[in-house]
Fold this sequence. Notes:
Blueprint (H helix, E strand, L loop, with lengths): L17 H6 L14 H11 L11 E6 L2 H7 L15 E8 L6 H4 L7 H4 L2 H25 L3 E5 L4 H8 L5 E10 L15 H4 L4
Antiparallel strand pairs: 1-2, 2-4, 3-4
Amino acid sequence: MPDSTIPDGELADLPVAASPLFLDARTPQSWSDRPVSHAVLHQLYELTRLAPTAFNGSPARIVFLTTPEAKERLRPALTKGNLPKLTAGAIAIVGHDLRFFEHLPRLSPHYDPSALFVDNPALAETTAFRNGTLQAGYLILAARLLGLDAGPMSGFDAAKVDAEFFPDGRVRSNILIALGHADGPPARPRAPRLDVAEAVTIL
């Protein structure tokens, strides 16, 4: 069902794609163990990588956990409330490469901004984090477009995830995303959202 905080008239003329991406999409509370194929995960990245980032820097680095053994490596880092998401078909660990700028001569051939970051690790980290987060959002929308459910998780110990999956220190974990299929219909109605007057200023 569309979000009840939005008047129906404001939804009437939305594009068809709004339904799978926003209106009908829900975050599952329980997950089927139906697998997500490698081919679908490749498609997921192919879509994610096309969306914009600063200087086309593309700092996100993604590890997809698809086997029970791989998911078990994540278990010690999860909060109790996120443990049920281990049953999802796949878990994406979305991190950001602190040295993403080394790829900028190739990714931004019209203007190479890598000199901005080489001797400025604080700027590099902020840029990597901000744009890696943006790419995580793109990944969620791409997953929904491909018919997957997506459940983002911030309840985890990032230091444990980094030690297990990014031990060289170059990549830092940012967000985890369960990917797959809900086990049944939503268990409860969509939670309220802030309305326009509460969240938006138009000047």
